[in-house]
């Protein structure tokens, strides 16, 4: 498969996985709940997911023609994270709204309550 074909498919999968608008993600990332979840590398001031959310906003605001290999690599990471995390989470609707599971997904641009 050609790289451009792979990028085209990844672009579609990324936009299916990320169901929050850039402004929604930014507003979410400003909350205490957003900063309270996720894995932090030693010495890091923010979680991996929180940093990912900032990168997702940048990607969403970039024209498709201007996306580079690093952007596509991050898009692949986002798609994988959202898919894995959705499979793991609480599947009882009453447990989802305030859960750390949902908050973590939202850091990655996906709000499961929109599904």
Automatic annotation (TrEMBL):
It holds the Pfam family DUF3140. InterPro entries: DUF3140. It comes from the Bacteria. PANTHER family: DNA-BINDING PROTEIN, POSSIBLE DNA-BINDING PROTEIN. This is DUF3140 domain-containing protein. It comes from Sphingomonas naasensis.
